[in-house]
Specification:
The protein is built from ten helices and nine strands. With about 260 residues, the chain is an alpha/beta fold. It has two domains: about 180 residues, 3-Layer(aba) Sandwich (Rossmann fold), CATH 3.40.50; about 60 residues, Helicase, Ruva Protein, domain 3 (Orthogonal Bundle), CATH 1.10.8.
Length: about 260
């Protein structure tokens, strides 16, 4: 039996009902799909039953990659590499539907990387069906002015429409994680604020949420020195706290910041 590696955040999905719910989230017949971290291949087997046209998997664990090759033969194109080091645009020349029980220790890093590197013209994926630690998922889908609202929700909702599919209990995995999980479904937005460099949105939100309980006067003056007229333009009060500014305000602040950069 394969032993899960804690260093790689491995928790293998074993619950058949949850696996069925994942594969039935979207029709993949004759589609190009990618699975991140297939592990022992439980979800992989069910996805193959839905007759995708081409099936890529990315598995960092070399031992698991060899086991997958042995189990599935030529049904999979196996990429034995680190998802954080891969250029997703080079995996396929077709849009991919991506499935992933993401390692919880790097799940936010993976999602942020994908969003920040997303080409506005040529999208490498059409949909994402991803599992996160529930606490992280709650931050991704959080609404403006709520306790979980912050950098992750602002970044994710800039480019993606997001829907929660279901929560998942620890006993659906082996070994059991100590936390609940959530399955989210993502689709790229067709209309969004365009930036010269998306990393400026990351920078703005990082500075503003660095002290999320304090008023925004200090971060505003740091990013926009002597720009009081901007407060009137965006109808912002310096007495507000970071979570009091809605999504569009952060996108507008990023646009204004880019104007200052020339």
């Amino acid at each position: 039996m394969i032993k899960a590696k804690k260093s790689l955040g491995q928790n293998f999905l074993i619950d058949k009902n949850i696996i069925n719910k994942i594969v039935n989230t979207i029709d993949i017949k004759n589609r190009y799909i990618l699975e991140i971290g297939p592990g022992t291949g439980n979800l992989t087997s069910s996805l193959l039953e839905k007759s995708p046209k081409k099936f890529y998997v990315i598995e960092k664990d070399t031992q698991l990659s060899l086991k997958l090759k042995e189990k599935f033969k030529d049904e999979l194109i196996i990429i034995n590499d680190d998802i954080l080091k891969i250029n997703e645009n080079l995996i396929s020349d077709k849009e991919l539907i991506v499935f992933g029980n993401l390692p919880y220790n790097i799940s936010t890093e993976i999602l942020c990387k994908w969003i920040l590197n997303l080409d506005s013209q040529n999208l490498w994926f059409s949909n994402l069906v991803l599992m996160f630690q529930k606490e992280v998922a709650d931050r991704i889908i959080s609404k403006f002015n709520s306790p979980n609202y912050g950098r992750l929700s602002i970044l994710a909702k800039w480019r993606l429409e997001i829907k929660k599919i279901t929560d998942i209990k620890p006993n659906c995995f082996f070994p059991k994680p100590k936390v609940d999980s959530s399955l989210l479904f993502f689709s790229p937005k067709t209309k969004f604020t365009k930036f010269n460099n998306p990393k400026n949105l990351e920078k703005i939100t990082r500075v503003f949420f660095n002290h999320r309980r304090k008023m925004i006067k200090k971060p505003f003056n740091k990013m926009f020195p002597k720009k009081e007229e901007l407060l009137n333009k965006l109808q912002i009060s310096l007495n507000l706290r970071p979570h009091n500014l809605d999504f569009e305000t952060y996108y507008n602040l990023t646009s204004e910041f880019e104007k200052l950069q020339g």
